[in-house]
């Protein structure tokens, strides 16, 4: 008995699997049968209506013509419907496109019917043609749109508001309409658009697909409270940067989660969907214009050259690699000590640029033999030196390692560049090098001073006076000659905190919010300058063009931002209430951390460049030969892992005041 039941269960399971796999084919068969019946019925009813709804009154001549023509005509209709894909559309999501196809198919069949029955059989009454095609079209459209209509009607009559998020749509234009319809037709989203915001007063009080357009963007906070809005979609791809930030600032006054359409490209390509919406990032609310650079000049500068990026797997180094790869270099070399990062950027670049001549090398800038080997083998013309330890608290605990990696690593790389006739060396520096209070900032200031020494000695024709400190590599005659005739231009690029980088607070805040808090801020009054990774990299590449040697390029990053405000905005943009849903805890300043950062020292001054947001800090003069002697002592102390490293650095970097 059990065996028999088991066979029956297996049999039923196979039937269910077959029905599931062939569901659309079954629907198609039903539609073909339905269309066959309704086509036959449409023209019969047309005759019936023409003769006062009495079959006995229909002239036999017309009935004979109808009976002879209706079967071949029905077959022709089915073929045309098939050709117009009326049996393969997903009618649950039927839209204007499907309506057009049905209309076109019915019109074509109307012409065939009118010409065919008249030419070959009998001229029929005018009402026969008109009523017949109207009924045929009505039946074809009704069955195909009935399911969607029932779903929409059920939603309007019995909206399940308890399980749906109340959504506000900002923008009643083409993009807004496409987003609205995407939400309305989606069965996956548990969302319902209850109001629309638009700055055009002529639209207020009107409706778009049954949803009221209620007010302008300045009323977003009040309308959100009135309708109990939980989510906001901003669908204005044509908005300027200022307009977008104004709208987002209004949204940020609410407790709603905010999403936006990135730009016009989605509208142009027709990819205006919920999937195209992205979360508002904190950088969208930065109080300044983004940095703009002349990409044509960068292309001319990079194209056809061999470029080396140290630290090429990091957040800044990898973005540098992406932008360099996009500008047709002769060869791109990525040098990094961490193989996972290097491997990831290697895969990304080779996939996007399959013809790129790319070398990914694993090694440390502290290894002078390796560095010299790389320069001698590949002869890079441009070097972007991004390799460094950047974590402030960790470096406070390991000052000798900070000196070894940042300062000595820069010295060794710069010496190898000079000894191999590299054309330009660009150091990635930081605003923490200005009046540093931590060892990381102090080592970056040492790096800037190294760059200034190298550049000054080369300009004076005294490059051979630069000692080969801790660079364990034999110097041959050709290397000595290269050093005597060195012409490398050394520059530094200084910028603030980079949003989204490995050392940025933003990824940390996001992880803390995802865990439900608390979000940790070191001090309620701490402020920082912020920029995006692409902006930072654009500045670095622009510096390579402006450079004449010895400069420290500085980005005008606008007004500094309170980190506490940044954390609160990020919590709000995630749809939570600060200090209610997500707590904020103040942990106190970390070792070496100060309340504010500076972009340059007062003595440096500022010079303008062709880019209004990029400035040049004039180098502070210091005694180069004395600095080299002090640097040698620092390096020697670092390799001995001396405990008084910070005190020794203070003697060299006079602006360094550790806290």
Output the structural class.
alpha/beta
> What fraction, in percent, of the residue positions are helical?
40-55%
Number of domains: 3
Q: Please state the second-level CATH architecture of the largest domain.
A: 3-Layer(aba) Sandwich
How can the largest sheet be summarized?
A: 9 strands, mixed
Low-confidence stretches: 263-272
Question: How does this model look, in words?
Answer:
With 659 residues, the chain is of the alpha/beta class. The protein has three domains: 2-156, no CATH class; 161-280, Rossmann fold; 295-498 and 531-557 and 599-652, Rossmann fold (3-Layer(aba) Sandwich). The protein contains 22 helices and 22 strands. The strands form five sheets. The chain has a nine-stranded mixed sheet with strand order 10-9-8-11-12-13-18-22-21, with helices on both faces. A seven-stranded mixed sheet has the order 3-4-2-1-5-6-7, sandwiched between helices. A two-stranded parallel sheet has the order 14-17. Strand 3 (207-208) and strand 4 (211-215) form a beta hairpin. Helix 2 runs antiparallel to helix 3 (60-83), helix 2 (23-50) crosses helix 5 (126-157) and helix 11 (315-325) packs parallel to helix 12 (339-352). The chain starts with a helix and ends in a 7-residue tail after the last helix. Residues 263-272 have low confidence and may be disordered.
């Amino acid at each position: 008995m059990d065996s028999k039941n088991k066979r029956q269960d297996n049999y039923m399971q196979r039937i269910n699997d077959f029905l599931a796999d062939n569901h659309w084919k079954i629907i198609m068969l039903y539609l073909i049968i339905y269309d066959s019946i309704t086509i036959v019925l449409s023209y019969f009813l047309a005759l019936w209506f023409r003769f006062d709804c009495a079959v006995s009154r229909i002239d036999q001549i017309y009935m004979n013509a109808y009976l002879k023509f209706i079967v071949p005509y029905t077959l022709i209709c089915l073929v045309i419907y098939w050709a117009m894909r009326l049996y393969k559309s997903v009618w649950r999501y039927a839209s204007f496109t499907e309506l057009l196809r049905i209309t076109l198919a019915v019109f074509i069949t109307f012409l065939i019917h009118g010409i065919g029955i008249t030419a070959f059989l009998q001229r029929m009454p005018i009402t026969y043609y008109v009523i017949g095609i109207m009924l045929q079209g009505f039946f074809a459209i009704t069955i195909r749109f009935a399911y969607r209509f029932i779903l929409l009607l059920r939603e309007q009559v019995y909206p399940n508001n308890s399980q749906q998020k109340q959504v506000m749509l900002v923008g009643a234009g083409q993009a807004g309409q496409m987003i609205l319809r995407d939400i309305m037709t989606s069965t996956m989203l548990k969302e319902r658009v209850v109001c629309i915001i638009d700055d055009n007063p002529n639209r207020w009080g009107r409706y778009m697909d049954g949803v009221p357009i209620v007010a302008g963007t300045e009323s977003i906070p009040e309308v959100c409270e009135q309708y109990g809005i939980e989510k906001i979609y901003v669908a204005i791809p044509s908005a300027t940067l200022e307009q977008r930030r104004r709208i987002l600032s209004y949204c940020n006054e609410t407790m709603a989660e905010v999403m936006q359409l990135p730009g016009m490209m989605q509208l142009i390509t027709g990819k205006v969907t919920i999937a195209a919406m992205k979360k508002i990032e904190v950088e969208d609310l930065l109080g300044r214009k983004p940095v703009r650079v002349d990409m044509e000049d960068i292309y001319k500068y990079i194209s056809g050259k061999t470029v080396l990026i140290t630290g090429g797997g990091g957040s800044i180094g990898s973005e540098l690699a992406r932008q360099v790869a996009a500008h047709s270099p002769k060869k791109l070399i990525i040098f990094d000590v961490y193989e996972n990062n290097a491997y990831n950027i290697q895969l990304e670049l080779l996939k996007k640029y399959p013809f790129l001549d790319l070398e990914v090398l694993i090694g440390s800038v502290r290894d002078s033999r390796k560095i010299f080997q790389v320069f001698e083998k590949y002869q890079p013309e441009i070097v972007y030196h991004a390799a460094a330890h950047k974590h402030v608290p960790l470096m406070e605990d390991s000052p000798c390692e900070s000196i070894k990696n940042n300062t000595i690593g820069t010295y060794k790389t710069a010496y190898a560049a000079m000894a191999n006739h590299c054309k330009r060396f660009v150091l990635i520096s930081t605003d923490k090098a200005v009046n540093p209070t931590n060892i990381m900032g102090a080592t970056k200031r040492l790096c800037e001073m190294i760059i200034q020494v190298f550049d000054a000695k080369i300009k004076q024709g005294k490059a051979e006076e630069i000692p080969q400190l801790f660079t364990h590599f034999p110097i041959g005659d050709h290397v000595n000659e290269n050093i005597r005739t060195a012409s490398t231009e050394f520059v530094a690029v200084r910028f603030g905190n980079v949003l989204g980088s490995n050392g940025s607070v933003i990824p940390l805040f996001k992880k803390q919010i995802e865990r439900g808090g608390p979000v940790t801020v070191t001090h309620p009054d701490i402020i920082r300058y912020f920029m995006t990774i692409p902006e930072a990299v654009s500045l670095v590449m622009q510096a390579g063009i402006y450079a004449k040697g010895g400069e420290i390029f500085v980005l005008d990053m606008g007004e500094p931002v309170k980190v506490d405000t940044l954390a609160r905005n990020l919590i709000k943009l995630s749809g939570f209430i600060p200090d209610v849903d997500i707590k904020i805890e103040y942990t106190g300043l970390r070792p070496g951390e100060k309340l504010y950062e500076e972009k340059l020292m007062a003595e440096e001054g500022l010079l303008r460049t062709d880019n209004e947001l990029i400035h040049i800090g004039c180098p502070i003069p210091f005694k180069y030969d004395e600095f080299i002697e002090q640097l040698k002592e620092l390096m020697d102390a670092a390799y001995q892992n001396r405990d008084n490293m910070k005190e020794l650095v203070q003697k060299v970097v006079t602006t360094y005041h550790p806290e």
